[in-house]
From TrEMBL:
GO terms for cellular component: extracellular region; lysosome. GO terms for molecular function: oxidoreductase activity, acting on a sulfur group of donors, disulfide as acceptor. Pfam families: GILT (PF03227). This is Gamma-interferon-inducible lysosomal thiol reductase. InterPro entries: Interferon-induced_GILT (IPR004911).
Amino acid sequence: MAPAVTLALLLALLALLAPGLGVAAAPSGCDAPAPLWCSSPEIAAVCQAESRCANRSRPAAAPVELSLFYESLCPACRMFLVRELFTAWLVLPDDVLSVTLVPYGNAQERNVSGKWIFQCQHGPEECLGNMIETCLMHEAKNFSTYFPVIFCLESGSSVTKNLEAVCPLTCLQIYAPQLDSSRIAACVQGDAGAALMHRNAQLTQALDPPHQYVPWILVNGKHTDELQEQAQASLLGLICQLYQGEKPEACGGLGAPKVPAGCRR
C-alpha cells in the first residue's frame, strides 16, 4: 500500500475515534494519542484540549433516590411533602432527584372473605386519601403528571374534598385535566384500589429497619436518623450534598426550617 494511502487511512481512523478533535500535533508534555485526549480531565489539561472536549458528552451521574412512606392526613407528612419535597422537585432537574411515594404509613390491613380492609391512624378519611393518591399514581403513571395533583391535595384544608371541589376548579382539573376522573373513582371504589393499597402495605411492612413513625424517608434506599433529620430540615440541601454530578443552579444558599413531630405508631 502506498504511503500516501496509509496516511489517509490513519487520519480517517483518528477522525472516527476522536470526533471533533481533528488531528492536531500533540502539545509539549502530552504523551497521549489524540483519540485519548478527552479520556480524563487531567489528560485534556496536559494536552491543552479542554475546549475541544467541552462539547463531548460526559457520563451522567445517578439521581438521588428518595422514597417517602407517609399518610395522607399526617400533619408532618403533609408539611414535608408540600414544603420540602415539592419545592426540591420543582427546582431540581429531573435527572438529579428520583422520587417514590408510598401512601400507607401506620395503617393496618386485614383480609375479610378475600377482600382487603384497611384501618388508618387518622380514620376513614385518611384511608380514602391514601386510596385516592394511590389510584391517581396508578392511573397517571408519570410522576410529573401526578405529583402536582398530590401536592394540591395535600396543601389544602381537606385532602379528599380537594379532589372533588376546589373553587373554581378541582386539583385534577388544574394540574392533570387529561386524566379520567371516572377511572380514578372506579379504582378507589373497586378491587384494583384495594390490591394497590395491599401492595403499599407490603412495601411498608418490608422496610428494614421497620418504620417507627411517618414520614419515613429513605435516601438511596437507606434510612438513618441523620438522613431523616437532614431531609426534613432541608431536603434541597441534602440532595445537593449527595448528588455526584455537576451541581444544578438550585444548589445555592439554603435555610433549615423547624421540623414538626412525626406521626408515631
